[in-house]
C-alpha cells in the first residue's frame, strides 16, 4: 500500500510521536496550522470517516478515546479543536482516516 500514514504507523517513515497504543498513533503535523497541531490516526487503514463501518467499531472508539489522552499530554486543558476532513470537497489530502487535534491558542468559533 502506498499510504503515507500506513508507512508512519509501520515505522517506515519517521514522525514526532506524541502517543501510541495498540490501535492508534498520534504525531505532530509537518505543516501545523496552530501552535499545537497533532494528527491522531488509526493504525488500521480506513480511507475516511465515510468508510467507518460496524467492523471498525473497536478501532473507531479507541481512536476517539485517544483524543483526550493526547490533549492531556499536550497540556491543552484550556481547549482544543478536533477536525476530520472527508473526500476531496471536504479538504482531505491523505486518504487515511485521521483527526487533526489543534490548540495552543484561542481558536475562533467555526459553527458556534
Q: Termini, distance in Å?
A: 39 Å
Approximate strand percentage: 15-25%
Provide a count of the helices: 2
Strand segment tally = 5
- SSE string, helices as H and strands as E: HEEEHEE
- Which bin fits the share of residues in helices? 10-25%
Outline the structure in words.
The protein is globular, with a radius of gyration of 14 Å. With 112 residues, it is of the alpha+beta class. The protein has a five-stranded antiparallel sheet with strand order 1-2-3-5-4, with helices on one face. The chain is 21% helix and 22% strand. The model has no long low-confidence stretch (mean pLDDT 96). The protein has helices at 4-9, 57-73, and strands spanning 17-20, 24-28, 36-42, 80-83, 99-103.
Describe the structure in brief.
This protein is an alpha+beta fold. It has helices at residues 4-9, 57-73; strands at 17-20, 24-28, 36-42, 80-83, 99-103. It has a five-stranded antiparallel sheet, with helices on one face.
Features:
112 residues, alpha+beta, HIT family, subunit A, 5-stranded antiparallel β-sheet, 2 helices, 5 strands, 21% helix
Describe the SSE topology.
Layout: H1 4-9, E1 17-20, E2 24-28, E3 36-42, H2 57-73, E4 80-83, E5 99-103
Antiparallel strand pairs: 1-2, 2-3, 3-5, 4-5
Amino acid at each position: 500500500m502506498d499510504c503515507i500514514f500506513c508507512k508512519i504507523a509501520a515505522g517506515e517513515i519517521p514522525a514526532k510521536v506524541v502517543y501510541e497504543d495498540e490501535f492508534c498513533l498520534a504525531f505532530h503535523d509537518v505543516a501545523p496550522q496552530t501552535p499545537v497541531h497533532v494528527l491522531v490516526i488509526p493504525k488500521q487503514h480506513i480511507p475516511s470517516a465515510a468508510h467507518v463501518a460496524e467492523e471498525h467499531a473497536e478501532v473507531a472508539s479507541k481512536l476517539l478515546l485517544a483524543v483526550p489522552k493526547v490533549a492531556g499530554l499536550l497540556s491543552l486543558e484550556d481547549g482544543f479543536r478536533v477536525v476530520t476532513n472527508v473526500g476531496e470537497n471536504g479538504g482531505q489530502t491523505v486518504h487515511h482516516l485521521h483527526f487533526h487535534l489543534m490548540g495552543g491558542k484561542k481558536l475562533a468559533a467555526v459553527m458556534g
